[in-house]
Amino acid sequence: MPATKPDFMNAHALGILEFPRLLAHVAGRASSAPGAAAVRSLVPRVDREWIEAEHARVNAVRSLILSDLGWPTEPIPELGEPLKRLRIEGLTWTALELLQGAMLLRSSRRMRDALRDPRRPSITLAFLAAYAQGLVDLRAQEEAITRAISEDGTVRDDASPTLRRVRKELRQTEGELVRLLEREMGKLESHHQVSDLSVTMRNGRWVIPMRREAKGYVGGIVHDSSGTGATIFVEPPAAVEFGNRVRELELEEQREVERVLRALTEQLHPYHDAIVGAFDALVALDSLYARARYSLEANCGALTFGEPSNGMAIVDGRHPLLLAKGTTVVPFDLALAPDERTLLVSGPNTGGKTVLLKAIGLLCMMAQAGVPAPVGATSCLPVFDDVFADVGDEQSIEASLSTFSAHLKNLGEILRSATANALVLIDELGSGTDPAEGAALGGSILETLTRRGTLTLSTTHLGQLKLLATEVPGVVNASLQFDAVQLAPTYRLLKGVPGRSYGLSIARRLQLSEEVIARAEERLPHGERDMAVLLADVEAREAALTTREQLMDREQEKMRSRVATVTDRELKVRERERDAERVARQEARKYLLEARGQVERAIADVRARAAEQSVAFDEAARAARRSVEEAAAVQGQAVEAVEQRAAKERARVTQKQQGRPTDTTPATAQRTPGVAPARVAPLAEGDTVLVSTLGDKVGRIVSVRGNDVRVVVGSLTVTVPLASLSRTKAAPPPAFKLTLSGDMVEVEPVREVDVRGMRVDEMDDLVLQALDAAVRNDLRELRIIHGKGTGALRARVGEMLKKDTRVTGFRLGAWNEGGAGVTVAELS
């Protein structure tokens, strides 16, 4: 597994950026204390290969968290020091340390199995393969510790036969000793007894309490006394020998416990290196888990990394520590081209310049430490070799440094150490001294860093520095937008536009004397006034453009909403039309089928009275059935056509909403070539037909039910689709008659039916078939296995059994029949 490099970044700059505070926030997402400590120990690195690999590992854990199986969080005990001692031959772990060792082995085994689970994506697990290889499966040692030590950290009686014997004898001896002491206590005179009259233990010996004046009557050994001295705790002479035996057994118990602990430790000693490796792997995985959770909470996008010479691109950047507070954070976008090396941010106080400076530095450093940064997915951050920061007031009384001197000390260090691959953050450049001299010095420093190629971000209030962008190639102005009317910051970053200080505007807002403000404006140099007017005009144009863009966005959103509403209404209207047609067709089919039943009853009645005219009557009956069945078939096909049109309409609307071209080909032109449309053949009972599904065998129709037809082919009776039949004049082969006597029984009677895993609407046929088979086989009971689950299947089974006249009663299964997961139906 990769080892962590030492901290190479400028510790002073990381402290200013509050990098340790950020790591502590991310560490709070770990599931264990060792994992949290590993997060807090992270440092920015310059190894781009390690950085990209670490982010890939974090993304892999993030994918597993979001998967159906989730992330297998396992407890990790704090075993750093005990693992170091395990290396020493002959050293024994305590019972609690052994119990934690078993926890470590169990977590290692479970995590190892989870990372090898074939149900998890192999591509994702490949990023974690190095850690999976470090995990061990020492089940034998884990189970040995679990058998010997209870969850409260005590060695069990069953840890060894000797320990079981010793503890049994110890309990017996202590019981006899307590009974003896109770007898002795009962012999005390009432004036020698105390209120709390019970056998107790003092200094490892069983004793009885009594008043001090009773000592001369009882004798024995005094082991303790009360705070007032009025009560003493005495071991009577008769109990001394029993007490000595108890002490001997306790020592023997202690020796046996130490032997058991030593034996268990010796089982772990040969695997010291493997256990340490498993501990390190679990800690590293928990560290990745904490960072992945933070990535999800902060909605961090996937980053790409480049060279500092190629600039940077931050999309939807947010300050991590402001996010941690739960406050509303205004995101910013920043793109620096390769030839743009210095960004000079200006604007009024409280506008967010320092926060922006720290946010950019912190985003870069956390990304280089393997922590996801709260930026958009298209962001690209450089990999810096170091970071330098001069932010805030660092004056020191002890070092005799003023604010300006402290700034100069930091700037001198930056000029000496910053390379072309470094990141430099400077706040309020040129402040703390005469503005003219501060601007001159600040301009010289920025020019030096820019020509060196160092990526520099600086804030300033000095107007002269804002002109640097027109004098030094590579310097770019920027500002944070300020609402000139409300005199409040909006925190929107504007690149290429310097910011105004708004000092006189704020003074006028605070109702400073208008005469004083007018004189101040007169004292401004002409260049400053012209610059202020120009910036005000630029800001006004920017505000107008922003307002226009927002209006256009709102209009587009309204248009999209209207289109969606109209489309939805159109779909609902057509759906209602189809529903009405479908219901009408189904009702018509229902009435026709009912009419078929009435026709059959009329035919039976007439047949009974006019048997002599059977030939003509049969032909008339067939014609009547044929007419009803053809009408029912037409209505059934009409219902199917409605369903097909509904499906096509839904697909067309979906394509329209997605912006795809809709298929306007007529329905008649969309049929698959070579497939003929469904044919409604005027076939009825008694007709001779060819059955295509049986190789064009000749058969005779027995009955027609909609699109299903029962046909006799030889001695075989089958149900086939209507479309598979065609009329023929060939005579059907003679049917073989088979005479059966008695009831037909199943070869093996079905005594139970299993409907687990089915939907409620899928189980009806299976239960009814099982009931039919049970009745045919003269069974008295039928077990219906539906499982416990949500209870939906059990409820549906109850409804069916209540309605079935063949069922005399039903009940839930007994404990040996499946309990609440089985319903037993009692048949008549």
Automatic annotation (TrEMBL):
<dbReference type="GO" id="GO:0005524">
    <property type="term" value="F:ATP binding"/>
</dbReference>
<dbReference type="InterPro" id="IPR005747">
    <property type="entry name" value="MutS2"/>
</dbReference>
<keyword id="KW-0067">ATP-binding</keyword>
<keyword id="KW-0378">Hydrolase</keyword>
<keyword id="KW-0547">Nucleotide-binding</keyword>
<dbReference type="InterPro" id="IPR002625">
    <property type="entry name" value="Smr_dom"/>
</dbReference>
<comment type="function">
    <text>Acts as a ribosome collision sensor, splitting the ribosome into its 2 subunits. Detects stalled/collided 70S ribosomes which it binds and splits by an ATP-hydrolysis driven conformational change. Acts upstream of the ribosome quality control system (RQC), a ribosome-associated complex that mediates the extraction of incompletely synthesized nascent chains from stalled ribosomes and their subsequent degradation. Probably generates substrates for RQC.</text>
</comment>
<protein>
    <recommendedName>
        <fullName>Endonuclease MutS2</fullName>
        <ecNumber>3.1.-.-</ecNumber>
        <ecNumber>3.6.4.-</ecNumber>
    </recommendedName>
</protein>
<comment type="subunit">
    <text>Homodimer. Binds to stalled ribosomes, contacting rRNA.</text>
</comment>
<dbReference type="InterPro" id="IPR045076">
    <property type="entry name" value="MutS"/>
</dbReference>
<feature type="domain" description="Smr">
    <location>
        <begin position="753"/>
        <end position="828"/>
    </location>
</feature>
<keyword id="KW-0694">RNA-binding</keyword>
<dbReference type="GO" id="GO:0140664">
    <property type="term" value="F:ATP-dependent DNA damage sensor activity"/>
</dbReference>
<dbReference type="GO" id="GO:0004519">
    <property type="term" value="F:endonuclease activity"/>
</dbReference>
<dbReference type="Pfam" id="PF01713">
    <property type="entry name" value="Smr"/>
</dbReference>
<dbReference type="GO" id="GO:0045910">
    <property type="term" value="P:negative regulation of DNA recombination"/>
</dbReference>
<dbReference type="GO" id="GO:0016887">
    <property type="term" value="F:ATP hydrolysis activity"/>
</dbReference>
<keyword id="KW-0238">DNA-binding</keyword>
<dbReference type="GO" id="GO:0030983">
    <property type="term" value="F:mismatched DNA binding"/>
</dbReference>
<dbReference type="InterPro" id="IPR000432">
    <property type="entry name" value="DNA_mismatch_repair_MutS_C"/>
</dbReference>
<dbReference type="InterPro" id="IPR036063">
    <property type="entry name" value="Smr_dom_sf"/>
</dbReference>
<feature type="region of interest" description="Disordered">
    <location>
        <begin position="646"/>
        <end position="676"/>
    </location>
</feature>
<feature type="compositionally biased region" description="Polar residues">
    <location>
        <begin position="654"/>
        <end position="671"/>
    </location>
</feature>
<dbReference type="Pfam" id="PF20297">
    <property type="entry name" value="MSSS"/>
</dbReference>
<dbReference type="Pfam" id="PF00488">
    <property type="entry name" value="MutS_V"/>
</dbReference>
<comment type="similarity">
    <text>Belongs to the DNA mismatch repair MutS family. MutS2 subfamily.</text>
</comment>
<dbReference type="GO" id="GO:0072344">
    <property type="term" value="P:rescue of stalled ribosome"/>
</dbReference>
<dbReference type="InterPro" id="IPR036187">
    <property type="entry name" value="DNA_mismatch_repair_MutS_sf"/>
</dbReference>
<keyword id="KW-0540">Nuclease</keyword>
<dbReference type="GO" id="GO:0006298">
    <property type="term" value="P:mismatch repair"/>
</dbReference>
<dbReference type="InterPro" id="IPR007696">
    <property type="entry name" value="DNA_mismatch_repair_MutS_core"/>
</dbReference>
<keyword id="KW-0699">rRNA-binding</keyword>
<keyword id="KW-0255">Endonuclease</keyword>
<comment type="function">
    <text>Endonuclease that is involved in the suppression of homologous recombination and thus may have a key role in the control of bacterial genetic diversity.</text>
</comment>
<dbReference type="GO" id="GO:0019843">
    <property type="term" value="F:rRNA binding"/>
</dbReference>
<dbReference type="InterPro" id="IPR027417">
    <property type="entry name" value="P-loop_NTPase"/>
</dbReference>
<dbReference type="GO" id="GO:0043023">
    <property type="term" value="F:ribosomal large subunit binding"/>
</dbReference>
<dbReference type="InterPro" id="IPR046893">
    <property type="entry name" value="MSSS"/>
</dbReference>
<feature type="binding site">
    <location>
        <begin position="347"/>
        <end position="354"/>
    </location>
    <ligand>
        <name>ATP</name>
    </ligand>
</feature>
